[in-house]
Amino acid sequence: MTDKGKDSQGRFTQGNRYGRPRGSIARLGMDLREDLADFLHEELPAVKAELRKLDGLMKIRMFIDLAAFVLPKLKATDEPYLGNLSTEDLDQIIARLKSEMVKN
């Protein structure tokens, strides 16, 4: 074995202590992300101008597509959908929320 955990052919050996830690981001990936972020920041005024030119439905589609990059994705839950609850159930939920707000 040669230096820094590599074999005679220059490949890292299994269990290499000297390589990049598992799950860490490669420097090239970080550089690419930074370059892309800089480019998007510089081009933001042009992107906004182009979005303003779109018609209503296309503009909504673009907002939805772009929102996926900045908003967390919602996950389905086991909680009941509010539209399926009775008026009494909704009143109980509202009363419980009000009482919790008063406590805090």
What does this structure look like?
By secondary structure, this protein is mainly α. Helix content is 54%, strand content 0%. The chain has a domain at 26-73 and 80-103. It is flat and about 75 Å long.
List keywords for this structure.
104 residues, mainly alpha, 3 helices
Largest sheet: none
Secondary structure class reads: mainly alpha
Give the helix proportion (percent range). Answer: 40-55%
Shape: flat
Question: SSE layout and pairings?
Answer:
Layout lengths: L26 H27 L2 H12 L19 H17 L1
Could you write a compact summary of the structure shown?
By secondary structure, the protein is mainly α. 54% of the residues lie in helices and 0% in strands. The chain is built from three helices and no strands.
